[in-house]
Automatic annotation (TrEMBL):
Residues 237-338 form the Acyl-CoA-binding domain. PANTHER family: ACYL-COA-BINDING DOMAIN-CONTAINING PROTEIN 5, OS02G0822800 PROTEIN. The keyword Magnesium does not apply. It comes from Zea mays. InterPro entries: ACBP4-6_C, Kelch-typ_b-propeller. Residues 239-332 form a coiled coil. This is Acyl-CoA-binding domain-containing protein. It comes from the Eukaryota. Keywords: Coiled coil, Kelch repeat, Repeat.
Amino acid sequence: MFGGEDNKRRLLNDLHILDLETMMWEEVKSEKGGPAPRYDHSAAVYADQYLLIFGGSSHSTCFNDLYLLDLQTLEWSQPDAQGAHITPRSGHAGAMIDENWYIVGGGDNASGSTDTVVINASKFVWSVVTSVSARDPLACEGLTLCSTTVDGEKVLIAFGGYNGKYSNEIFVLKSKPRNLVQPRLLQSAAAAAAAASVTAAYAVITATDEKTRDIVATDDFDIKRAQPASNSKKFVAEIDVLNGENGKLAARLAEVRDENSKLKDKLDMTNLSYGELAKELKSVQDQLAAEGSRCQKLESQIAAARKRLESAGSLENELEVLHQHISQVEETIATTQRRKSGGVWKWVAGSTEVSDDE
């Protein structure tokens, strides 16, 4: 199992192997130079020794590259595939029939892939098998594809997928023998010269083999017209230029990977800091909640105290009124007593008059 993404949507390019006897997973460390992290790619095993990885997507772009992993040495390589130009795609499906790996469906974030393509795993030559319309159910993502034998004939069976709507249709493709020695489409003059050299050399070598004397060139390219000698210098010069550009790209890729590693470290530190800040924020929120509860209790107590103070003020007023009333009563009593009493001189005179109260 190669690549994919984890539950945090981080892209992966790691490799795992499941032992079907022990049902135990093992992560395998392969040599450098493998595919960039991706998901929605396709994978196939060829000749019980090679793992093929094609296409897929990152969060921003789709791929159309092809990688090969030797399952014995665990070394990655990127074959120099020839033939038809294959557009980037992800979400496609693939299935092997003998040496041919068929790719159906997929898309590039803008539209579905309308062509069904095949690559010969022994010669690494791409060809377009057939094409459908843009709204055809086969131009979709997420379909299922498998190979089987019906009436002695090997066929492909495709089912389902999504292209604006979900499909439950079944499609059957009958494979036909194809001459994949010569590519049908050459993308540049350098590639044409290289293909001419390789094809001419292959024709010379196989001319002595009775089983391969009948190799025929395709309509798009004529072996007899190839002149590898006249194009060799230009081809070598272009190869040197491409090697130089490849070196620059490799250096730039190393820089990007180094920067990506630093950014990952910063992200890990940020996540750690975020976790600590989240814990501190939770503690402060708990404290604020406790203080809020205390404030509510204090507000209730203050309201009760205010009521008591208001009651105390009223009592003070009543008490003041009572004091005034008592003073008035006492003053009235004193005045009454002074009126009734004749004083000391009256008593000395021997007055015997007694008041009614006495």
